[in-house]
Specification:
heterotrimer, A mainly alpha, B alpha+beta, C alpha+beta, B: alpha+beta, Ubiquitin-like (UB roll), Fumarate Reductase Iron-sulfur Protein, Chain B, domain 2, five-stranded mixed sheet, two-stranded antiparallel ribbon, 9 helices, elongated, C: alpha+beta, FAD/NAD(P)-binding domain, Flavocytochrome C3, Chain A, domain 1, Methane Monooxygenase Hydroxylase, Chain G, domain 1, 3 domains, five-stranded antiparallel sheet, 18 helices, 19 strands, 14% strand
Chain lengths: 228, 248, 667
């Protein structure tokens, strides 16, 4: 049980870490999405250059470790909080009308988070692992050999079930963000009659647009593959 | 009105407990929910059965003692009311109504619908006060001016009746709304600022020790709170705790 | 036995200061060796327990609720009086003292009331220091409101929840002492007897409500802060658990009871809606500032309204009787509580009542809504507002002032008070009577003190609004710490009081037998049924209007009911474990004895004063007739032989040296 003082150990501190890592992961989503955009337009080169840049540029490398740590902390912290929360009510209600007072997303963050984690593992295995350790064929761009992540991606999303999985996963992520984005601000103590509605608005926009565009990419690739 | 009640009966903390079905008839829509249970109890006693144990006292929504989880909601489906202010006209003839005690590790069942909420008292004892002795020689009440907005916000937080609906309704059985209401009230007033940092840390520590869950900001507590205590208080406590942790 | 009020010598303004200056003290080292029991954790109990613990005594505090914060002080709405004179409107300690004595219809003890007025200012300072969020104005200073029966604005408030805020302040002070170990808190514990050793109060027998076990607790002094006994009427604005047991047990152990018949009936409560009703809800006195009280002028119209053939709003002005404005043109709807209550009863008894039971009058906001509407229209620059606009604006203005009360009314009655007039009826609210205490708040049992509503001392025959909170906190924070110390200064050599003495044995055994008797009755009728019957007798004969004939009948009825109760009560379960019915039975048994004493007291007080109205003693136009020559005294009852009917009436003469007795007139 968390009983310490300070920024570690108490239940509130754990929530701060959830919020901070969550918001950091949100910022990563934006960068990731921007990088993915060339996939939409079918711009091989731009995408592959972006992919190489992301795997080799030292600053990005350094930030990526922070990212891995955040994912890990967000996951482990989330699991611990969920366990504690479950222990806080050992005997469940026979009739619990959660829908009466809270949104579905807010009541299912752990479930949504878990699914997002499963997706992340699959996603990392398919692309990140292959890019770092797999045998990805190379292409020549401006005289340099670059791993052809573009082709790998396009081939993957030509399979309908793979695309469907991605779209579904993005829907889950959307729900996770729907609650998570504004919730992080509340946890960090930012709640104000004027600004909170704005934060909630941005959160809703974020939750719709980011996963939406992420999901659109595989759909476009899949449709293109059908056309081809 | 004729209704079917499914009420949780539990003989004591060690008993596993079970749901028992009671049909009730001739319920007047003007009755409060507790008056309806009163009538049921009188019938049970006449039949030689044990009446249903439940907590209640003032029956006007201010003492915070009544505590029933009705049809899956703390204090039932109406908003801004305690169980004693819930009237039977909220229900329809023929309804089946489930009644359970508050459920949380920190609120063990004593009997039937009665739970032990002394965890709340211990949280207050950990710091929910201003350390001032009775002297008759404190500063004049008007010596420190308090902006009206702060005084009003402190009052709104202070209207918490300590019923525990927030804990009961939270999917995590978190006590954040209760604890933050007291932290906020005292942090908003100049008299309470002096020991604000210690207070928030001690109260949060006690809250954790009692085995309450964590806040996941679902906002259910605010909806079910009979006094409409705002989530802003939780944010304020988050702020207070963060700054206390960073500076103390 | 001679009653000695032990009022200090000297001019009234100096008595308390002189007393404090000369009171014997207990040294810090000795305080640690002295135990004090505080029963009840309302305003008086919490504040006394916290203050005594701060001084260094070992305090044990008891409450029957699940937390000390739930005591019924929490339900007080309006405010707390204090002679701060922040408004510069002529208030002073003397004026607060004078208003309280006059409001009490000259039946309270001058010295106690003056002390109350003196310490009232410290209460506000103390509460603010504790973080009580009183209402403030835009300049950041404390705000005040006016209350009935006075000409100054001296009431401090926190919206309609002043009692809650003050109690939570006292509860926080108490919690601080529990945390540091100076107070041991026993919640869900009910005191079932006082234990006296050599004539002194030396402890209590308490029942652990959860386990059913009787526990012995010893102390050098016992403070009863157990509130009033309005629940003897079954229906009252008191909490369901409020009871007289602690006070009554003390009474049977030798503490005399002062003015038991003095009951305050509050005029603005939501009327009874049916047989199932368990309690009555108060609508704040402040509503009478804007609401006009009326009944139909003609009985036929009242009848039609009762039968649902006619609506209040259909009745034209000339067919309405604004009886308070008619009878008391000077004060109108703002006459004191006792006068307003009696007038409502008189109209209903005459057949003008308006709800199905015939026991309700209208409190109408239509003219206030119109008045405020026009005012708002002017402010908003609407020169020819439509009637609709006026009603809209007026409704908004009334909502801003009384919104929470209107909402509460609508929740309970399902009636919209903005459109149809509210229905109200008087209900039992407070008991001015209580255990007799001297200037030190000590009862006739040495070492046994009574604070707050549990004692009789400060409100005479009628309490002014916003004075109950003042008295509770004054007794607990500022009086008891001195006067209890005065008594304890003789006890520093006593050492811990053992709980295995024959006195404790006997008290516990008696308590056990009392409890067993209820279980053994094995009758057929639940406790509540008896309680309702008792309440009906009390309300009919010892309520707003009392007569010798009715009171005699009530006494006979109560005695018969008591007999039936012991034969026919059904209490399921056993003594062990939680048994709420058993606890209720014990409380109702005590109420039944108290009820008889109240009737006896009302019967022997052959005058009308304050809340006590004897139909035989009224003027030609129905006003109360006080008899100062014969009754300027406290009726102090001594219990004898376990039978309230044999109680002996003593008198404490009241000497008014600073206030001149005059007839209250509101015409």
């Amino acid at each position: 049980m968390a009983t310490g003082k300070g920024l570690f150990g108490s239940s509130l501190a754990r929530k701060y870490w959830m919020a901070l890592t969550g918001l950091f992961l949100c910022s990563f989503l934006v960068i990731h999405l921007l990088g993915n955009l060339p996939l939409m337009t079918g711009d091989h080169e731009a995408f592959n250059i972006y992919a190489r840049f992301m795997t080799t540029f030292p600053v990005i490398k350094a930030v990526s470790y922070l990212l891995y740590a955040s994912i890990l902390l967000h996951t482990v912290d989330g699991l611990m909080l969920t366990r504690q929360n479950s222990a806080a009510r050992p005997v469940k209600y026979a009739n619990y009308n959660g829908a009466a007072n809270a949104s579905w997303a807010s009541r299912n963050m752990a479930l949504l988070g878990t699914f997002t984690l499963v997706f992340l593992i699959v996603h990392l295995k398919s692309f990140w692992f292959e890019m770092h350790f797999g045998n990805v064929p190379t292409v020549l761009i401006e005289g340099e050999e670059v791993k052809d992540l573009y082709t790998l991606t396009v081939t993957s999303f030509a399979q309908w079930w793979y695309t469907a999985f991605y779209v579904f996963a993005m829907a889950m992520l959307g729900f996770h963000l729907w609650h998570g984005f504004s919730s992080a601000f509340q946890t960090l103590g930012i709640n104000h009659p004027t600004y909170t509605p704005i934060i909630k608005g941005i959160g809703a926009f974020f939750a719709l647009v980011i996963p939406g565009v992420f999901a659109l990419i595989p759909i476009v690739i899949y449709l293109n593959s059908l056309a081809a | 009105m004729n209704l079917t009640l499914q009420i949780w009966r539990q003989n004591g903390p060690q008993d596993a407990g079970r749901t028992v079905t009671y049909p009730v008839s001739n319920v007047s829509p003007d009755m409060s929910f507790l008056e309806m249970i009163d009538e049921l109890n009188i019938d049970l006693i006449k039949k030689g059965e044990e009446p249903i144990a439940f907590d209640h006292d003032c029956r006007e929504g201010i003492c915070g003692m009544c505590s029933m989880f009705i049809n899956g909601e703390a204090h039932g489906p109406d908003r801004g009311v305690t169980t004693c202010q819930l009237h039977m006209r909220t229900f329809k003839d023929g309804d089946t109504i489930t009644v359970e005690p508050w459920r949380a590790k920190a609120f063990p069942v004593i009997k039937d619908l009665m739970v032990d909420r002394s965890a709340f008292d211990r949280v207050i004892q950990a710091g929910g006060y201003i350390s001032v002795n009775t002297s008759g020689n404190t500063l004049d009440a008007n010596a420190i001016l308090v902006p009206k907005a702060d005084a009003d916000a402190a009052f709104d937080a202070a209207t918490c009746i300590g019923c525990g609906a927030c804990v009961a309704t939270c999917k995590n059985a978190s006590a954040m709304l209760f604890v933050s209401a007291k932290v906020s009230q005292l942090a908003l007033l100049p008299q309470g600022k002096v020991e604000a940092a210690e207070r928030v840390q001690n109260m949060v520590r006690q809250m954790d020790l009692e085995g309450f869950g964590n806040c996941t900001n679902t906002g259910a507590c605010e909806v079910e709170c009979p006094k409409g205590i705002s989530l802003e208080n939780i944010a304020r406590m988050n702020r207070e705790f963060l700054s206390a942790s960073l500076t103390h | 036995m001679k009653l000695d009020a032990r009022i200090p010598e000297g001019p009234i303004a100096d008595k308390w200061t002189e007393y404090k200056g000369h009171v014997p003290l207990v040294s810090p080292a000795n305080k640690r060796r002295i135990d004090v029991i505080v029963v009840g954790t309302g305003l008086a109990g919490s504040s006394a327990a916290a203050s005594l613990a701060e001084l260094g005594y070992n305090v044990k505090a008891f409450c029957f609720q699940d937390s000390p914060r739930r005591a019924h002080s929490i339900a007080a709405q309006g405010g707390i009086n204090a002679a701060k004179n922040y408004q510069n409107d002529g208030d002073s300690v003397f004026r607060l003292f004078y208003d309280t004595v006059k409001g009490g219809d000259y039946r309270s003890r001058e010295a106690n009331v003056h002390r109350l007025a003196e310490v009232s200012t410290s209460i506000i300072d103390q509460c603010v220091a504790q973080g009580v969020p009183f209402a403030r104005d835009y300049g950041g200073q404390l705000d005040n409101r006016s209350f009935g029966g006075v000409q100054v604005s001296r009431t401090f408030y926190a919206k309609g929840q002043t009692g809650q805020q003050l109690l939570l302040g006292a509860y926080s002070a108490l919690s601080r002492q529990i945390a540091n170990g100076r107070v041991k808190m026993y919640h869900r514990h009910e005191m079932v007897d006082v234990v006296t050793v050599d004539g002194k109060a030396r402890g209590i027998i308490a029942k652990n409500i959860v386990t059913g076990k009787l526990e012995r607790h010893s102390a050098h002094a016992v403070l009863l802060c157990t509130g009033g006994y309005g629940n003897v009427f079954f229906l009252s604005t008191n909490a369901m658990g409020s009871n007289v047991t602690a006070a009554w047990r003390a009474h049977k152990k030798g503490a005399f009871f002062g003015n038991p018949c003095f009951t305050q009936i509050h005029p603005t409560c939501i009327p009874v809606s049916g047989e199932h009703q368990s309690k009555l809800t108060l609508m704040s006195e402040s509503l009478r500032n804007d609401g006009r009280i009326w009944v139909p002028l003609h009985k036929e119209d009242a009848q039609a309204i009762r039968e649902g053939r006619l609506k209040a709003t259909d009745l034209p002005e000339e067919k309405r009787d604004y009886y308070l404005e008619r009878r008391y043109p000077a004060f109108g709807n703002l006459v004191p509580r006792d006068v307003a209550s009696r007038a409502a009863k008189e109209r209903c008894d005459e057949g003008h009542g308006v709800n199905a039971t015939g026991e309700a009058v209208y409190l109408d906001f239509a003219s206030a809504i119109e008045r405020y509407g026009k005012e708002q229209a002017n402010l908003k620059g609407l020169h020819n507002p439509t009637q609709e606009q006026i009603i809209d604006l007026g409704t908004q203005a009334v909502e801003a002032k009384y919104g929470n009360l209107f909402q509460m009314y609508e929740k309970i009655t399902d009636d919209n008070p903005y459109r149809t007039p509210m229905m109200i009826y008087p209900a039992v609210h407070y008991t001015m009577g209580g255990l007799w205490v001297d200037y030190n708040l000590m009862t006739t049992v040495p070492g046994l003190f009574a604070l707050g509503e549990a004692n009789f001392s400060d409100h005479g025959a009628n309490r002014l609004g916003a004075s109950a909170l003042m008295q509770g906190l004054a007794d607990g924070y500022f009086v008891a710490p001195y006067t209890v110390g005065d008594y304890l200064s003789n006890d520093i050599r006593t050492g811990t009081i053992p709980t295995d003495s024959p006195e404790f044995d006997a008290a516990e055994k008696a308590a056990e037998e009392r409890q067993q008797a209820f279980l053994d009755a094995k009758g057929t009728t639940p406790v509540d049924v008896f309680h309702r019957k008792l309440g009906k007798i009390m309300w009919d004969e010892c309520g707003m209007a009392r007569s010798a004939e009715g009171l005699k009948k009530a006494i006979a009825d109560i005695r018969a009911l008591r007999e039936e109760f012991y034969k026919d009560v059904r209490v399921p379960g056993q003594r062990e474990g939680l048994n709420i019915e058993l606890d209720k039975a014990a409380r109702v048994a005590d109420f039944m004895e108290l009820g008889e004493l109240m009737c006896l007291d009302a019967l022997t007080r052959e005058e009308s004063c304050g809340g006590h109205f004897r139909t035989e003693y009224q003027s030609e136009d129905g006003e109360a007739l006080r008899d100062d020559a014969k009754f300027t005294h406290v009726a102090v009852w001594e219990h004898q032989d376990g039978d309230p009917g044999k109680s002996v009436r003593h008198q404490e003469e009241l000497n008014y040296e600073n206030v001149k007795l005059i007839t209250r007139s509101y015409k």
